[in-house]
Amino acid sequence: MEALGDVNWTAELSRSAADPVQFLGTIIEQPWVGEAQKDLLYRRIVESAQAAVATSFGEARVNATAQVERWQTSWAEYLLARGEARRAWEQVPSGEQYLDLRLRVADRLGNIREQLARFQGPVSDLRNSMQIEAVAEFVYEHELRAGNLDASNFLGLAEIRLKHNDAGGAMTLLRRMALVSGAPYSGLDPAAALLEKSGHAGEAAEFLDSLVKAEPWNWDARGRRASARGVVADLAAVAKSTDAPYATRIAAAKAIKKLKGPALDGTDAELIALSGSVADFEHPYWVAARVEAATEKSLAEAVAIDPAISKLPLLKASLAARHDAFAIATMREISPFFFENAALGLLPGEPAADRAAVARGLAAAEERLGDLRPALQLYEGAQTIEPNAAAGRALAALRTRIKLSEQNEARRPVVTDNLDQDRLVHARLTR
């Protein structure tokens, strides 16, 4: 069949179908339709759906209009994934139910703030688009102006300020949060944690000082304050204290090593090892030492001992070692359904840079294993999370490879007991 894989021919054929939209809607999901070819099919589907609106009335017209919007949305999502934001913008329907898509496209186009300035609806309508930084900033600022002094609004806005190197603005927000948000002293710990996470340990010490005064029994705060201040003696006291939780003692021991202080003595062997150099982690139940050693073997053993710990370091180690099948299996343990939407389902809550790097690593692993479709989804997800020039080139090359594979699949003979073929057999394409 010469026309197999020729979407131009398929699009023309749809004009003779009783329902062109249904006909092409089935075709577009077929594996032999390449990603690049779908653009023409989407165009023809939308045109056919719009033609159906023009010839319908009453309830049928309402249904036909909904069908147009549904296919316009699919086409816009397709174009956005391929980096064609300007064309995607032309297809986004105007209804409020498409606000999230409209904002994502606007963010890619760089005019998101203009769209938010014109936004007149309730701010709750923006909650589904909080993964867009400009939207999150808009929502947090609106909530604080409206008198909603919940800690999440202060922390979210302060995190954005820190991301843009506005430490002064972040400190102003966090100090205000500590005074007015929630129960007394409840804002001190999250304020310090945010500053520590963003590399501002010195600023975090201000909040940790207040927290230690308010809660002298808080060993975690004492250890974190000592780390922020760089006081090795105080860290050693925390690490050696049998009153402190073991996880807090581990953190103190690791902080001593980071500050290049003298190794501990007179305490647990694992803590002594963690405060110096972990050369031998092969001891029963030494989970922290195995994690600190950070080899694929040690991390796998740590997860086996304590399955509740984060498997992300193991995933990164297996990707670095190019143990592809093991890395993919580990990712499925972390998030069983991440393939359904790599951009949203892969490591939610982790920094965008980490999520994108893992997505690119998993895409390369799937490609090496010969699973091209999952690799394509992961590359597209990585580009949605954080566009990268090298990943963009890899994505384009993979699309070409998939298209070539699909073309060759249509050209190859099918080996059966019957010599007759249901297609014309051609020489294999190499490019």
Topology:
Layout: H1 7-13, H2 20-27, H3 38-54, H4 58-81, H5 85-91, H6 99-109, H7 112-117, H8 133-145, H9 151-163, H10 167-180, H11 188-197, H12 201-214, H13 219-229, H14 232-240, H15 246-258, H16 269-275, H17 287-293, H18 296-305, H19 312-320, H20 324-334, H21 342-345, H22 352-368, H23 372-385, H24 389-411
Helix pairs in contact: 1-3, 2-3, 3-4, 4-5, 5-6, 8-9, 9-10, 9-11, 11-12, 12-13, 13-14, 13-15, 14-15, 15-16, 17-18, 18-19, 19-20, 19-22, 20-22, 22-23, 23-24
The percentage of residues in β strands lies in under 5%
Unreliable stretches (pLDDT < 50, length at least 5) are none
- State the distance separating the first and last CA atoms: 21 Å
Class based on secondary structure composition and strand pairing: mainly alpha
The helix/strand order is HHHHHHHHHHHHHHHHHHHHHHHH
Q: Which architecture name of the domain at 320-407 and 418-431 does CATH use? A: Alpha Horseshoe
Top CATH class of the domain at 320-407 and 418-431: Mainly Alpha
CATH topology of the domain at 320-407 and 418-431: Serine Threonine Protein Phosphatase 5, Tetratricopeptide repeat
Q: Write down the overall geometry.
A: flat
Mean pLDDT: 92
Beta-strand segment tally: 0
- SS field, number of helical segments: 24
Spell out the key features of this protein.
431 residues; Serine Threonine Protein Phosphatase 5, Tetratricopeptide repeat; flat
Walk me through the structure.
The protein is mainly alpha-helical. The longest helix has 24 residues, at 58-81. The two termini are 21 Å apart. It has helices at residues 7-13, 20-27, 38-54, 58-81, 85-91, 99-109, 112-117, 133-145, 151-163, 167-180, 188-197, 201-214, 219-229, 232-240, 246-258, 269-275, 287-293, 296-305, 312-320, 324-334, 342-345, 352-368, 372-385, 389-411. Among the domains are: 1-93, no CATH class; 320-407 and 418-431, Alpha Horseshoe (Serine Threonine Protein Phosphatase 5, Tetratricopeptide repeat), CATH 1.25.40. Helix content is 65%, strand content 0%. The chain has 24 helices and no strands. The protein is flat.
